[in-house]
Write a structure and sequence with these properties.
Elements (H helix, E strand, L loop, with lengths): L1 H24 L4 E3 L1 H10 L9 E4 L3 H5 L8 E2 L5 H4 L10 E5 L4 H12 L4 E5 L2 H7 L10
Parallel strand pairs: 1-5, 2-3, 2-4, 4-5
C-alpha cells in the first residue's frame, strides 16, 4: 500500500513539474498600455513606418465606427487563423492587436502565437481604454 502511494506521489510530482515547465517555455502574449502604443505611433517617422503591424480584430461594423490611427488591417478575431497572411507580417515581425475591450484581441493574440508569430502584443483595454484616454480615431466617428 505504501509503495502504491509513493508511486502516485512520484507521478504527481512529474506531472506538476511538466505543468510548471510548460507555460514558462511557451511564447506568451505581452500587454501594452494605450499610452505605450500612442507614444510609439507619435514617434514613428510615418504611419506606415511604425515598426509594427497594428491589427483591429473587431467586426467590420465596429471597425467602420472608427479605428486606432495606423491600423493596417481589420480581421475579425474568429478569422485570424484563416486570414493571418493578410497582416503581411513575418513570424519575427511585431504585431499589435486590439478589439473593443481586450478580450477578443487576447484570443487573437493567442491564435497568432500558436501560428508561430513570436512578437505579439495585446493593447490592454483596447478601444475602450483608447477612447477613455481621449485619443483620436481614424475614420468613422471622431
Amino acid at each position: 500500500m505504501k509503495l502504491r502511494w509513493l508511486s502516485y506521489l512520484g507521478v504527481l510530482v512529474i506531472v506538476a513539474a511538466g505543468v510548471a515547465i510548460g507555460p514558462a517555455s511557451a511564447t506568451h502574449v505581452r500587454q501594452l498600455s494605450v499610452q505605450e502604443v500612442k507614444s510609439a505611433l507619435d514617434k514613428a517617422p510615418s504611419i506606415r513606418e511604425k515598426g509594427f503591424f497594428l491589427v483591429d480584430v473587431r467586426t467590420v461594423e465596429e471597425h467602420d465606427t472608427g479605428a486606432i490611427p495606423g491600423t493596417d488591417v481589420n480581421i475579425e478575431y474568429r478569422e485570424v487563423a484563416k486570414r493571418h497572411k493578410e497582416i503581411g507580417a513575418s513570424l519575427d515581425d511585431h504585431i499589435v492587436v486590439y478589439c473593443q475591450s481586450g478580450k477578443r484581441s487576447n484570443i487573437a493574440a493567442d491564435t497568432l502565437t500558436e501560428l508561430g508569430y513570436k512578437n505579439v502584443y495585446n493593447i490592454r483595454g483596447s478601444m475602450n481604454a483608447w477612447l477613455q484616454a481621449g485619443y483620436p480615431l481614424a475614420g468613422g466617428r471622431r
